[in-house]
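In keeping with the milestone schedule agreed at the kick-off meeting, the structural modelling team has produced records for the first pair of proteins. Each record is given below as a sequence line and a structure-token line. The laboratory manager (R.T.) confirmed that both were archived under the project's standard naming scheme.
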Amino acid sequence: MFPKATAKIEIIGVDKPYKFEILVKRGIIVDEYLESRVDNYYDDEFPFEFFKSYVDEDGYVSRTLYSGGAPATLRKEGEHRYLVGYYSAPDEFKIILLFEDDVVITSKVVKRRMFESKMTFDLTGVDLSSSKSGVGVVTEDIPYVPIISKFIIRVVLTILVELGILALFSYRSKRSFMLVGISNLVTQSLLTLFMFIAHYTWMSYFGALIILIIGEFFVFLAEMIFYGLKLKEHKKGRAVLYGFVANLATLLLSIFTIAFI
């Protein structure tokens, strides 16, 4: 029903044929239907006999064969680009390349942090003529600049909307605008932070939407009570109503713009 975590992995520094697979830490099992699991592998020629009994020094085995019962899709998207997908990309794994003559190259343990992860496995300068473990450099792309810029835009836009609605409710004093601006800076920064964490590391847009709805419930209550107590320019009823209307407006705005996170 919900999005599944993925990892797009690009291999750099390799100029000869190989089979790509990822390894997970799981025991080898006896299963008469084991061979049927290779249907989700990117290549028709899955090295079944090799991976059926392969266990590295840390106890990692083929994810395609030993994914724990869940489907384990591996798709080739380019000459050296692979998508680790459905059921879900594992949080922790190793990358393994199998060359001719059973030469095996494995990475160090990779820990995926992003929900839709993009990684590179750089083997530039590594001697690929003999088997090696824990070599190369795996880098995960974390788009800090887009994340920070979108965070700032979302928080600032929310504050401006709520200040505009404050003006429509006939509030004019500098104190009222300062109070609303500072309170929104705190609440919306926290809410947006958790939305972004949910989006980028947990469950994409669905995760952000869940956090938004739950978080706005508490923001509604907190700000309506706070404004009722602190906005003195008009009666308490107007301040509470303002808190409700302003938060409803920003909730709807956030829902309709959630795709732009």
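The second protein of the pair:
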Amino acid sequence: MQIEVYEMKPTESGVTITLTAVCDSFSSLLWDVQYYGCGNFEVYIAANARNIEIFQTGRIVGRDDDKQNYGIIESVTLETDAENGDYLTVTGRFLMSLLSRRIIYPTLSFSALTSYADMVRLAVYRNCMLSDNRLIPGLCHGNTNSTCWGQKSRLQVSYENLMDWIFKVCEMIGGTANIRLQETSAGSGVYTMMLDLAQGTDRSILQDENAHIVFSDSYCNLLTFGYSMDLSAQKNVAYVLGCGEGAERKRTVCYRGDEPAQLNRYEVFVDAKDVSDETQENGETVQISDEDYIGLLMEKGAENLVPIAEISESTIAADNRQYQYNKDYFVGDYATVEHERFGLIQPKIQLIGMIESYDQNGRTLTPTFKGV
């Protein structure tokens, strides 16, 4: 496995991204891929004039065996030690972090039913692709080939951090967003940044369309296992109050599936005064119908529902012959995790994060699973 370093240079038409260096000798690498958040990385490498020249803030770091995830260098630390040698610690987040440099402005309003894919793509277009000063050069819309992004809703949002809002949408619908590099033409060495909207694949024992992925102590592919379930933060019913005053405020009640009752009911109040009952169409202010406005409040309430926290953190066999990471299964997929010794089984649980670690001891995989 080799580390690739790319340089971004602004041009009159946008930005040119070119491969400038390849590195195969480093002390350690942490590569943290996350499904509902922005991944990050850390490279620990000997410090010398050449490496200091290569690893500069603002450059892009990739791997020759991972063409989906790329990081942007945000911090470089030099440490000198007469006994242990001189080292660079290079850290950063994946390319989705570029969207954290923008907020959603002005207000983005969808009073009619609109797919989440169209919402996100329009939000990115207006805040990253439209204005010269707010432009993120080289950013393009990529693939949107998953059913969850076709779900439709009504939504109004303003002033939120763009990246955080996108991942909030991802958690609601079960999808993910990622920015990868794509070569403009084969062998050119020039790349654009493609924003993909995707979702994981069900590989659990509860389906038969895909080969099953089972991590179990009985299969010797589950090395360590940790499990927790926490009800304390759960919220499953939202009372949402929108514009208006006193008893005249527009309101609704939001929940998923059947309405929870009695001891299974965990309520939360959502103040949605910031959700306007007006929108702009062709430069004119238009009143939103009561039905469409209630839809906006329902979406606002759904953002504040908190599911039961069921999390499993494990260490799995990195070189297991049964399943190969990024070949047989990927971050975002649903698998089955069981620990026979304790009689615990999670028949369908989502792989929401994977930390790959490379050091003198070899390669380790540390996944994080989340219940559905």
